[in-house]
Automatic annotation (TrEMBL):
<keyword id="KW-0966">Cell projection</keyword>
<keyword id="KW-0975">Bacterial flagellum</keyword>
<dbReference type="Pfam" id="PF22692">
    <property type="entry name" value="LlgE_F_G_D1"/>
</dbReference>
<dbReference type="GO" id="GO:0009424">
    <property type="term" value="C:bacterial-type flagellum hook"/>
</dbReference>
<feature type="domain" description="Flagellar hook protein FlgE D2">
    <location>
        <begin position="161"/>
        <end position="316"/>
    </location>
</feature>
<dbReference type="InterPro" id="IPR037058">
    <property type="entry name" value="Falgellar_hook_FlgE_sf"/>
</dbReference>
<dbReference type="InterPro" id="IPR037925">
    <property type="entry name" value="FlgE/F/G-like"/>
</dbReference>
<feature type="domain" description="Flagellar basal body rod protein N-terminal">
    <location>
        <begin position="4"/>
        <end position="33"/>
    </location>
</feature>
<comment type="similarity">
    <text>Belongs to the flagella basal body rod proteins family.</text>
</comment>
<dbReference type="InterPro" id="IPR010930">
    <property type="entry name" value="Flg_bb/hook_C_dom"/>
</dbReference>
<feature type="region of interest" description="Disordered">
    <location>
        <begin position="149"/>
        <end position="183"/>
    </location>
</feature>
<feature type="compositionally biased region" description="Polar residues">
    <location>
        <begin position="149"/>
        <end position="168"/>
    </location>
</feature>
<feature type="compositionally biased region" description="Low complexity">
    <location>
        <begin position="169"/>
        <end position="183"/>
    </location>
</feature>
<comment type="function">
    <text>A flexible structure which links the flagellar filament to the drive apparatus in the basal body.</text>
</comment>
<dbReference type="InterPro" id="IPR020013">
    <property type="entry name" value="Flagellar_FlgE/F/G"/>
</dbReference>
<dbReference type="GO" id="GO:0071978">
    <property type="term" value="P:bacterial-type flagellum-dependent swarming motility"/>
</dbReference>
<dbReference type="InterPro" id="IPR011491">
    <property type="entry name" value="FlgE_D2"/>
</dbReference>
Length: 435
């Protein structure tokens, strides 16, 4: 009996050494979760029971469980390196074989798919043709590396303040090259359908108490007729409190909307031939199909210097992919050289009712099993799922000092069990030597 007990002890100590050695070997493996050998005693069973003074029959390895406590998060220089701070696993696909991992080594393959260092594709919510996230529909995440198409300007929002103390200019007629013929001016770049930039310039001329004329040129030309330098005009009226009276807004060139905005519906994007003098004509591009809506509601006339309070226009030129950013909810943003950003998808995380039931398959990955239950899929930072950290990796959760102590304990256990066998052998030999 003592031989079997000692032998079971040797096997248990060997298993303990194997588990501890594997932990130590993976102390530098990102996303690795340390294991723990769990043992149970053995007693022989009989029909009438073992009695209150039953002797044990040794030890057995009852389970090797993994500890899913959080590892340290270390920052890297790769924006596609991802770390989970909290619960959850990345979901990856290898030609349809689904696995789950905490190792966030991600990059892109030649097709633009986001893959880990084994080529498994990261899954999440993709976007449709309009850039809208397809929530609830899992698919392989992909980075679109093509140039971003330009967008023609359709809205300009630009409230400003006109100086009420200004005098009516004495120089007439209006000349954009003569600052004495107007009181103030400002400019904003707008874009045509091909992404060409054009200067949308407004000149403000005081015409009387609380009344102003706003002249508009695009690239110094008439918006509808590039061969002409005659500006578009609109008449502005302010009340006694210095607020713009949108109901009194008039123009023969712009379309005046009921909400107090102006619409430039017939803009012809133009370009110069570079000659002397230059000849201006249409450049082959078009304006936005809805025209250019100019919203300057909120404009005031106060006794302070002319100032543009804010400016925003929604057009842009073409852009090349400049970089990627992933926020803590997993949304992937592509940054372009034109200053725009575009949603490319959203990383999802999976969690399980029984993480201990997951089956490890190597490569720092696990697969679902009957014991683990079905995965609960969600976006990072929602419910019980952890937050996502871009440009970082989760270290192994192995504590080397603990493992080195475990090595000493396992070694002594092995030696002690070997001593049990040695002692039993000596006893047995004594009996054999009896005469």
């Amino acid at each position: 009996m003592a031989f079997n007990i000692g032998l079971s002890g040797l096997r248990a100590a060997t298993s303990d050494l194997n588990v501890t050695g594997n932990n130590i070997a993976n102390a530098g493996t990102a996303g690795f979760k340390q294991s723990r050998a769990e043992f149970a005693d053995v007693y022989a069973a009989s029909v009438l029971g073992s009695g209150k003074n039953a002797q044990g029959s040794g030890v057995l390895l009852s389970d090797v469980s993994q500890l899913f406590n959080q590892g340290n998060v270390n920052y890297t220089q790769n924006s596609l390196d991802l770390a989970i701070n909290g619960n959850g696993f990345f979901r990856t696909s290898n030609n349809g074989d689904i696995s789950y991992t905490r190792a966030g080594y991600f990059g892109t393959d030649r097709a633009g798919n986001i893959v880990n260092n084994f080529g498994y594709k990261l899954q999440g919510y993709a976007v449709d043709a309009n850039g809208n996230l397809q929530n609830g529909v899992l698919s392989d995440l992909k980075v679109e590396s093509a140039s971003q198409a330009p967008k023609a300007t359709s809205t300009i929002t630009q409230p400003f303040n006109l100086n009420s103390t200004n005098e009516v200019p004495t120089t007439t007629p209006f000349n954009p090259n003569d600052p004495t013929s107007f009181n103030s001016s400002t400019s904003v770049n707008i874009f045509d359908s091909q992404g060409n930039s054009h200067a949308f310039t407004q000149y403000f001329i005081k015409t009387g108490a609380n009344t102003w004329q706003m002249n508009v040129l695009v690239d110094g030309r008439n918006p509808a007729n590039p061969a002409s330098t005659t500006p578009y005009s609109a008449n502005l009226t302010f009340n006694a409190a210095g607020q713009l009276d949108t109901s009194a807004l008039t123009s023969t060139d712009f379309t005046v909307a009921a909400n107090g905005t102006l619409n430039m519906t017939n803009w012809v994007p133009a370009a110069s031939d570079g000659g002397t003098p230059p000849v201006w004509s249409g450049n082959g591009a078009t304006a936005s199909a809805t025209g250019v809506n100019f919203d300057f509601r909120g404009t005031t006339q106060y006794s302070s210097l002319f100032a543009v309070n804010s400016v925003d226009q929604n057009g842009y030129t073409t852009g090349e992919l400049a970089g990627l950013e992933i926020d803590d909810t997993g949304v992937i943003f592509a940054r372009y050289t034109n200053g725009q950003s575009k949603v490319q998808g959203q990383v999802v995380l999976a969690n399980f009712a029984n993480m201990q039931g997951l089956t490890p398959v190597g490569k720092t990955a696990w697969v679902q099993s009957f014991e683990s239950g079905e995965p609960v899929i969600g976006t990072p930072n929602s419910g019980t799922l952890g937050a996502l950290q871009s440009g970082a990796l989760e270290d192994s959760n192995v504590e080397l000092s603990d493992q080195l102590v475990n090595l000493i304990v396992a070694q002594r256990n092995y030696q002690a069990n070997a001593k049990t066998i040695e002692t039993e052998s000596a006893v047995t030999q004594t009996i054999i030597n009896l005469r």
